[in-house]
Amino acid sequence: MKPKVLVTREVFDDTLDYLAQHCEVEANQSDAPLDAQTLALRLKDKQGVLCFITDRIDEALLARCPQLKVAANVAVGVNNIDLAACTAHGVMATNTPDVLTDTTADLAFALLLAAARRITESEAYIRNGEWRGWFLKQMLGVDVHHATLGIVGFGRIGRTIARRAHGFDMRILYHDLMRQPPDVERALNATYATKDELLAQSDFVILQMPYMPATHHLIGAADLKKMKRTAILINSTRGGIVDDAALVEALKSGTIRAAGLDTFEGEPALNPEFLKLKNVVLTPHIGSSSEVTRAAMAMTAARNAVAALTGGTPPNLVNPDVTARN
Ligand code: DGY
Predict the structure, then answer these.
(1) What's the pTM value of the predicted model, to 2 decimals?
(2) Is 267 a catalytic site residue?
């Protein structure tokens, strides 16, 4: 008998075709959100789930899914999954690294450029019929080229952003828990800095670390005050890493110049004050959203699920200490 898998949100047809070769698939192609109760009911007789950052895979759910062997997240971030609970219940948890690195780095850089050169503000100005003609001081922005970029979180995506910055002749600072080996620093032309040094010296600060208790409000009011008044903050990693209320105040008071945000605390219910500010560029958590990348993420998750359900070790297991259920 084929193992049973639930796909909790809409995916691409080829993902379903691949899964169907190995599993009995129940798919939510209408994309109607499944609340915790519905998710638990539909997972009761399933061995696998392809889940998303909008699904909470926690102790309460796992306790109600005695047959579940694998939770294959269609995301690199796994902050929606309680990994300790998965391990305790013998459930393998997997993610989708690598396939989204470049696309996500592109979006961070797009936000940086848009905030620096006031792209979305300029577009709104035209669309609102406010443009009366050219003048010298129109929509003055800041230069990206030759500016200092500080990257907080220097994993795969952070390092890929650094490569983007080379094309703009930027000086690159980075901060992370672990310092990179000298050959990596040399190759990326990146200099290690403490968090405070990075905040004080950077014209642009990009955040690129996972969300977890230790990174909750990593950037708060006190940190924003350490930044240059001309600096621009980019958060396209996870809501909750920035204290959004403090950021609103910093943007209003001129503590920093601008921000580019793809992720928000409590999204999609973002702080309404952001909508009133011209000096913030807003996108709806689309960091990995190119056609190719989202398809690759879904297929990677499907491969992880199938590996787990056919007795193998999924390539992207994130709780390697798990003793998988038989
Ligand atoms: C991820 O992969 O973590 C993204 O945020 C989902 O788009």
Answers:
(1) 0.96
(2) yes
